[in-house]
Amino acid sequence: MKTEKNRERTKRAARTARVDWRKEFQHNWPLYLLVLPSVIFAIIFCYIPMGGLMMAFQNYKPWLGIFGSEFVGLENFRQIFEFKESYQAIINTLIISVSKIVLGLVVPVIMALLLNEVKQLGLKKCIQTLVYLPHFLSWVTVAGMLRDILGMDGIVNACLKALGMEPIFFLGEAGMFRQLVILSDLWKGFGFGMIVYLAAISNIDQNLYEAAEMDGANKWQQTLYITLPGIMPMIIVMATLSLGNVLNAGFDQIFNLYSPLTYSTGDIIDTYVYRQSLVNGQYSFGTAVGLFKSGIGLLLTAVAYKLAYKFAGYRIF
């Protein structure tokens, strides 16, 4: 008896949902019409090309096409861990991306806390604008600036020569390439995170600071026991969402800065895929590496959203 009632209840809910959907569509059809070109664009340029992932399981030959090339199963994925270059690219990607994530969380928080203590509004806005401005620069522009500053004829080496020291080829030294990449990315991007944390700080109840000051708490204690706990949900959200970028070390940045001299420490998965597939013509192997990276990234993104919802109540679906 209960089973029949449950089935009837389910049928009524389904009919109600269909009616509600039809009413909503009839009411908002102009909005759906506006979205339609974007949906078509996404299908043509994002979803249909996914059929090319078949190359990862083939010995792809351009003259034979996808359907005429030999199927080799997981052979291309096995080679990922056999080639020294691909293994090194994975290691470089992890080192660079994890360093960027850690510094990209710590430095913006520190800068937001420091800038929040600036009481002069004009100075505060000026610093905020100057720090945030590099976020809008493309990596082509930033790479050109770095080459002018750190090149053999750049400003830094000109100062070294003036001091009687030998010039240093900064962008050609494999030992310091990672540090330059990480620091330049931090300089370019930490302003955005700082703005996010400043907004979170502004939402903290000011009565808490007044009560703490009346109880004799100094600035450091107020920061430790009020400000940091107040912005901790935002820190957790930013940290968990960044987990999905563990295998994204920044193709635009690396591509515009690296050279064969720095492949050993600067070559990442994205640049390795670019060289193997488009430059060397190993389309199947390059597709396999890219699919491997995308699969790991999807898994990490799902875990990140799960953690963000669990610890900070953040969700987008």
Fold and architecture overview:
This protein is an all-alpha fold. It folds into two domains: 2-51; 83-312, Orthogonal Bundle (MetI-like fold), CATH 1.10.3720. The protein has helices at residues 2-47, 75-80, 84-116, 121-132, 139-150, 155-162, 174-202, 206-214, 219-241, 251-257, 263-266, 269-279, 283-312, and strands at residues 58-59, 70-71. The chain has a two-stranded antiparallel sheet with strand order 1-2. It is globular, with a radius of gyration of 26 Å. The protein starts with a helix and ends in a 5-residue tail after the last helix. The mean pLDDT is 83.
Topology overview:
Layout: H1 2-47, E1 58-59, E2 70-71, H2 75-80, H3 84-116, H4 121-132, H5 139-150, H6 155-162, H7 174-202, H8 206-214, H9 219-241, H10 251-257, H11 263-266, H12 269-279, H13 283-312
Antiparallel strand pairs: 1-2
Helix pairs in contact: 3-7, 3-9, 5-10, 7-9, 9-13, 12-13
Helix content bin: over 70%
Quick one: CATH superfamily of the largest domain?
MetI-like
Physical arrangement of strands within the biggest beta sheet: 1-2
Order of helices and strands: HEEHHHHHHHHHHHH
| Overall form | globular
Percentage beta strand: under 5%
Largest sheet: 2 strands, antiparallel
The separation of the N and C termini measures 36 Å
Care to count the β-strands? 2
Supply the number of structural domains: 2
CATH class (first level) name of the largest domain = Mainly Alpha
CATH topology of the largest domain: MetI-like fold
What's the overall average pLDDT, rounded?
83
Discrete helix count: 13
Residue windows where pLDDT falls under 50 for at least 5 positions: none
- Which class best fits the helix and strand makeup? mainly alpha
The radius of gyration over CA amounts to 26 Å
What's the architecture of the largest domain, going by CATH? Orthogonal Bundle
